[in-house]
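Researcher: For the record, we're logging two predictions in this thread. I'll number them. Prediction 1 follows.
Model: Prediction 1, sequence and structure:
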Amino acid sequence: MLSRISYALRETAAGFRRNATLTAAAIITSAVSLLLVGTTFLIQRAFDNLLTRWKGDVELIVYVRSDATAEQVQLIEGALKSQPSIIDVDRLRYLNQAESYAEAERLFAGDPGTLRLLTPENIPSQFKVVPIAEDSALVRELGEQFRQLAGVKEVAYAQDVFDVVSRVSQFIRVATTTMSIILLVVAVGLIWNTIRTAMFARRREIEVMKLVGATNWFIRIPFMLEGLVQGLVGGILSCLGLWGLNTAWTNAVTDFNDTELAALVVTDGYASWIMVLLLGIGALAGAIGSGIAASRFLDV
């Protein structure tokens, strides 16, 4: 068993040396395509962070002062519920200060300066409002009325950010996903071609091995392992690139000190999960490309 493993590893290393140019091209293409895949996931998560407070069809948020009395909070809630023709009363949600702080931890993950200024005691609580009326002007008019109520700190409208963010997010997601799929297919093709070339170059040796009784799988394994390693190395390089991009973006946003941009930072361990996924995709792509080549061109 150990001798077979040693043989497979030795032949895999030899394959890298014999096809250095093709191998490098396959690895680089894999790395670029996987980097685009990872970037797509991070961008989507960043936009999700930005829209966290607007999830669930929320189009209006009434922020309540941290020093508002319980009577003032009840007055605001009563005023909201008194508009059943405009507001979906059943979906009206109130986030107390602790819940609002938990949301802020994600929203301002990239702005530790702002987050340090917030505490569960001084952060505003909030009413999240889902309108029934489709007239955005009517919703904005209603929000302006609530702005005058005692205890209300601010009123925010989804219309100000939602449409632009959603469109940009969708465009980036479609564009990067399309490019990454195309490049991933190209990477699989390059790995396939690398293994095919390696098998053709060693066709005499393969013939001799089959004549002395070597099984097809004994011959295939080093070639399949070579492709798998190519995909895995591409995955590792893409992880390094993704880590560098995410770190640079996080530092840039922190230095810029903008609370809206801060929501676009992904710092909750999601990037680590994406890196594990990229390694898996890279290894799978390499295994597929080499597996097809090793099966199809074994009788060279």
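Researcher: Logged. Prediction 2.
Model: Prediction 2, sequence and structure:
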Amino acid sequence: MMTHDYALQVDNLAVEFDTYGGVVQAVRDVSFKLRKGKTLAIVGESGCGKSVTVQSLMGLIPMPPGRITRGSARLGNDELIGIAPAALNAIRGKRIGMIFQDPMSALNPTMTIGRQIAETLVVHRGLSASAARAEVIELLRLTQISQPEKRLDQYPFEFSGGMLQRAMIALSIACKPEVLIADEPTTALDVTIQAQILLLLQELQSSHGLSIILITHDLGVVARMAHDVAVMYAGQVVESGLVDDIFYRSAHPYTLGLRAAMPSNDPRKRQLQIIPGSPPDLFAPPPGCGFADRCAQAMRVCRDTPPPAYGHTHQARCWLQDPLAPASPVTSLMVNNKAD
């Protein structure tokens, strides 16, 4: 696919944080592509760098202590990394919307819901106060909040968790963005409300042509929502591909471990599987594969040398994909030793 098929393209992104204990290499050489009108799920356990990756694209990490040391991120033809704050402010909210993990802390408790959404419409779309108010009502109705004429004058504490997340969605799509980033949008919600929010996102994508980045640790959500998947571990994308590639042709032991840890209705699998061990210390990342110490199939080369990305549309950073590697349970990508 050509560049114009992508809403967002990230290449070789690296992000570090200065702390009292040293420098944390939170994001290490991350690359991915978001197809127009599709959903890319970025999945991985807590601390793997999912949220830091997207927040750095939005200019939302504090600098200092954070800094982007390398990489490029293009929204269409426009570079996001290193641009002036004023230029980034013009993009945030207008061309890229973001749904934060905790809407209660993301919304201002001293302002009504309607005023917070209207502010975005006035700043980015130049609407008058009356026109913005009318648009807020339509946005609340679009996101299935009942009695929008009443609700827009209420404060965040008067909304339930599901309603707050709907209000955040209304705020994030107010300026008809090209890209919507949803950072764990259903984490604090019960199962019924979670299903409603996911269905709402799918409906908005279909009606508005949104390109969505969905950050989650829930593979069930990934299976339902995603077209493409990037699996992150220890600050790196270790496997990426179409959702069917990730679920049915897993090519990295970490992805296999995540799949095995999913709850199952199979009565023969009554006990949840775990991935033994802990993620590596990102103050001093290992010289080779970050998953080597937890991998039952690790070889000497895994601990000494970082693996390249094997594959093309379906990629995996794993030495087991090398043509010279011994046979293993992971699917062979059957490619040469080179990145796409």
